[in-house]
């Protein structure tokens, strides 16, 4: 299995390639930028290795406690963490769940104290309008997150294949 340093290098190599592909496909530089950022975020912060005490887990700093339940319920290298598409969807949904919970909590405190109110309907309306106006950006955003994860899966797979293909040294007594 490759080290965290190898996974980081794969992420760095894939990011401009994804940006180039998105820029050519969408013919907009902001889509290329979105793809580059998506791959980097996926590789450095939303890595499949959030299910263990890894470099991406450590990068969350004092917020890494958010991933503690994920680590307890998702077995390392299972199809839930390292499965194409499902792994990325699960990590994004997990993070959105935490952000929503925190947002609802802050909204409740704000309303109770009278400091501010949050219009959740307005937020949902904005998301819907954003999708309708530029669904291409949403698609590229998700695909770039998956490309970052796929680089991880692929390097794990190739590392395992390489390790198995090497001749074993005879056991010496």
TrEMBL record:
Keywords: Membrane, Transmembrane, Transmembrane helix. It comes from the Bacteria. Signal peptide: none annotated. Coiled coil: none annotated. The lineage of its organism: Bacteria, Bacillati, Cyanobacteriota, Cyanophyceae, Acaryochloridales. This is Metal-binding protein. It comes from Pseudocalidococcus azoricus BACA0444. The chain crosses the membrane at residues 92-110, 137-159.
């Amino acid at each position: 299995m490759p080290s965290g340093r190898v996974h980081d290098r794969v992420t760095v190599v894939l990011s401009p390639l994804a940006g180039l592909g998105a820029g050519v496909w969408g013919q907009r530089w902001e889509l290329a930028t979105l793809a580059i950022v998506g791959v980097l975020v996926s590789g450095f912060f939303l890595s499949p290795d959030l299910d263990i005490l890894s470099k991406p887990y450590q990068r969350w700093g004092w917020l890494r406690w958010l991933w503690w339940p994920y680590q307890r319920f998702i077995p390392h290298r299972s199809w839930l963490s390292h499965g194409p598409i499902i792994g990325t969807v699960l990590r994004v949904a997990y993070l959105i769940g935490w952000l929503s919970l925190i947002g609802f909590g802050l909204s409740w405190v704000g309303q109770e104290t009278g400091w501010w109110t949050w219009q959740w309907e307005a937020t949902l309306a904005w998301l819907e309008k954003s999708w309708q106006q530029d669904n291409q950006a949403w698609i590229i955003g998700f695909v770039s997150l998956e490309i970052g994860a796929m680089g991880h899966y692929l390097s794990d797979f190739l590392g395992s294949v390489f390790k198995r293909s090497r001749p074993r040294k005879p056991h010496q007594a």
